[in-house]
């Protein structure tokens, strides 16, 4: 498989179909709380509002809590998921990304996380994290361009098993991310994000990342993924959530889910 498009495939191209669910009493009763878009059903999280336009599935009315967005909960465990969007521009204090959930001894748990989080009005950090329960003390972060590996680094997650969650920084960029991914391979949950843009002023056809672990120079990449190192097998992934903070909206353009 090519890592730019990974076989993690949640691909939602402009099509339509509304499924109306029970309405939040605080929400506009004319807006659906679930939308089935090209075969994938997205449920509202928090105060988000959904609308299908010519561009795709628009997720709007996003506030500052970080808990507004959509959830996908299929009937079967998730082996592969890929959600693609129009470029998501991260404003100051903004954040956008995905968490993958499953059941642990603690109950429903965010097993793996990939976030793009603002450090200023122009730049954001790419963050990866794994649940402390999975005892991940080390992750391998890989950077691809056009499917070719450009750089890799081992990054520690201190205090695995008893830490308060603190995501590891994989680099800093200024472009808009265009997707989030997860794939389950041999009991590991690998999460990723990518950039389909073209930055002619930097000479990089993806994203020119600074603050990259293990590299003294910026790294040009269009696909960044994190693989956890642990002796524990991850439980089944049962849902994914794509959430944002302080964004006007984000627009899903395509996606798909695969099962074991």
Structural class: mainly beta
The description of the largest β-sheet is: 9 strands, antiparallel
How do the strands line up in the largest sheet? 1-2-3-6-19-8-9-10-13
Cα shape: globular
First-residue to last-residue Cα separation: 17 Å
Mean pLDDT: 86
Helical content band? under 10%
Explain how this protein is built:
The protein has 260 residues and is mostly beta strands. Helices cover 0% and strands 50% of the residues. It contains no helices and 20 strands. A nine-stranded antiparallel β-sheet has the order 1-2-3-6-19-8-9-10-13, with no helix packed on it. It starts with 17 loop residues before the first strand and ends with a strand. Mean pLDDT is 86; it is low at 1-27 and 159-164.
């Amino acid at each position: 498989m090519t890592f730019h498009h990974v076989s993690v495939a949640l691909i939602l191209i402009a099509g339509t179909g509304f499924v109306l669910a029970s309405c939040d009493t605080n929400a506009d009763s004319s807006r659906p709380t679930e939308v089935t878009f090209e075969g994938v059903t997205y449920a509202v999280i928090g105060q988000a509002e959904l609308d299908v336009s010519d561009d795709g599935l628009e997720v709007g009315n996003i506030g500052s809590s970080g808990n507004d967005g959509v959830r996908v909960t299929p009937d079967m465990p998730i082996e592969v998921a890929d959600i693609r969007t129009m470029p998501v521009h991260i404003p100051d204090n903004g954040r956008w990304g995905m968490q993958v959930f499953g059941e642990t001894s603690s109950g429903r748990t965010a097993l793996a996380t990939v976030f793009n989080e603002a450090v200023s009005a122009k730049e954001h950090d790419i963050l990866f994290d794994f649940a402390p329960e999975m005892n991940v003390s080390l992750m391998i972060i890989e950077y691809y361009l056009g499917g070719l590996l450009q750089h890799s680094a081992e990054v520690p997650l201190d205090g695995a098993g008893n830490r308060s969650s603190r995501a590891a920084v994989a680099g800093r960029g200024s472009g808009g991310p265009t997707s989030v991914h997860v794939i389950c391979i041999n009991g590991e949950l690998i999460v990723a994000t990518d950039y389909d843009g073209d930055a002619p002023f930097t000479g990089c056809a993806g994203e020119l990342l600074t603050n990259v672990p293990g590299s003294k120079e910026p790294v040009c990449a269009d696909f960044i993924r994190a693989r956890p190192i642990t002796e524990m097998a991850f439980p089944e992934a049962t849902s994914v959530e794509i959430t944002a903070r302080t964004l006007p909206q984000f627009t899903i353009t395509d996606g798909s889910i695969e099962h074991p």
